[in-house]
Amino acid sequence: MEKPRPAVETKPYTDQKPGTSGLRKRVTVFQQNQHYAENFIQSIISVIEPAERQAATLVVGGDGRFFMKDAIQLIVQIAAANGINHLVIGQNGIMSTPAVSCVIRKIKAVGGIILTASHNPGGPNGDFGIKYNISSGGPAPEGITNKIFDISKNLQEYLICPELKVDLSKIGKQTFEVDTFKPFTVEIVDSVEAYAEMLRGIFDFAALKELLSGPNHINVRLDAMHGVVGPYVKKIVCEELGSPANSAVNCVPQEDFGGHHPDPNLTYAADLVNTMKGGEYDFGAAFDGDGDRNMVLGKHGFFVNPSDSVAVIAANITGIPYFQKTGVKGLARSMPTSGALDNVAKALKMQLYETPTGWKFFGNLMDAGKLSLCGEESFGTGSDHIREKDGLWAVLAWLSILATRKQSVEEIMKDHWQKFGRNFFTRYDYEEVDSDAANKMIKDLETTMFDASFVGKKFSSGDKTYEVAVADNFAYTDPVDGSVSKNQGLRIIFSDGSRIIFRLSGTGSAGATIRLYIDSYEKDPQKIYQDPQVMLAPLVDIALKVSQLQEKTGRTGPTVIT
Ligand code: G1P
Ligand code: ZN
């Protein structure tokens, strides 16, 4: 007897447009709106052609946040009912974003679903997110996310096998009979192993082991911030590379990240910053919820700006075995990221690409063999070993440089500035601003900037005067496929190369977040050790005046300064 199709009637939602990094909403939005998660999961699976599904494997994993396990059970049930053949899931659902990217590539899966809202807070009142990655291991490009969005807006039903339940804790294969399809299998895998294996092939583990546990070892402090990277740090840095167990803290993933923002910056990783100030540790790092971001600190809390971090790795790249094998194909940074990387590219005659914000733009360049190393000012650093930024990779890259150069973080950074000059950089974030006010501020600023008289205008603050050379809304033409991405951020570039950039965040879940970025280059060796906030104060002042940010949003100060 034929059983009924496992379809459930639903009504479409109009707000399931994936942002910079998947669909991010408050947990309550996923929980309280009927079929909200089911609809979106069905919309993702619907972009995989029915004919492909019976041979398709999807990788599934997340950062351990609240609602992740519920979402994984739904993915299992919906994937089965839609004829997906095979799922590979991290044990207990745990898999960092870089590890998912690694596993997709390794097993040649058609894609993966990552359950994370990255660095946003978790718990019942926090955020949840669902993100789709494609077979390259990278975030789905806009063509696909638009397709998912279109499907979600018209969805009338989804398919589900509600009875089907997997045990996420048990490593191994579980097989289920699903009507009309081949048996459906779910394979639970160790969350760390494939990723660890990949890192062993990238870095010189013997040299890292010597650095971390040899007779002249350094002391490190790694803060997983209760996010997903804890088990990776424990297994790779402590067990394998021999760093003492107590050098890694907050390593058990928690559904609410211990009540904190799992965001590795000077504000939300203040605990690490303060501990580092004590001088007991030579190297410190923190990671975000899903393990793709990193913050690097030296002894006494010496801060390495992420824009500098990627530049330092670039300048020392030939010490890393992976790049000795692959060569250096090119470098890239997102537009708001400081020009520190450009200086290295120029000096070492490497190709440099400037892309819009978001990791997905790097993927095309990597797939085309044009890009080896890239970074964003937002604590993202990575390479073409996978198609996501990679927090632990960045930390091992830094440790490799320490091992080779036998210098401290601060010495390496200062040598770098001496050699290449320094790009002073700061970012101001204004979080949860009223959306209408934020949109109006940006629109008005654009109008001001596009006035014919704006270019050539001089702005002064204190004893500094800057003359506008370029004013535009950044647009990017992908050199690989020719696709054009417009409206990627308002740029005011002055005649000395200093830049003021405004853009609205694409990853927030409530209200709007305004980001203000300032970048200014200094070559004078007398000035390169100054405090960035002091050096950049005139440009900040000019940015606030031109945009009237304070008047238009009612905000007298930013939520976070980096
Ligand atoms: C932010 C960062 C961006 C990063 C993204 C995902 O996006 O600014 O560099 O790629 O998170 O981690 P935004 O909120 O600015 O759109
Ligand atoms: Zn993240």
Automatic annotation (TrEMBL):
Ranges for region Disordered: 1-22
Keywords: Cytoplasm, Magnesium, Metal-binding, Phosphoprotein
The Alpha-D-phosphohexomutase alpha/beta/alpha domain, residue ranges: 16-157, 194-299, 308-420
TM region positions: none
Localization: Cytoplasm
One family name in Pfam for this protein: PGM_PMM_III
PROSITE patterns for the chain: PGM_PMM
Gene Ontology molecular-function annotations: magnesium ion binding; phosphoglucomutase activity
Domain of life: Eukaryota
Family according to the record: Belongs to the phosphohexose mutase family.
NCBIfam families found in the cross-reference section: PRK07564.1-1 (NF005737)
Protein name stated in the entry: Phosphoglucomutase 1
Organism classification: Eukaryota, Metazoa, Chordata, Craniata, Vertebrata
This protein's encoding gene: efcab7
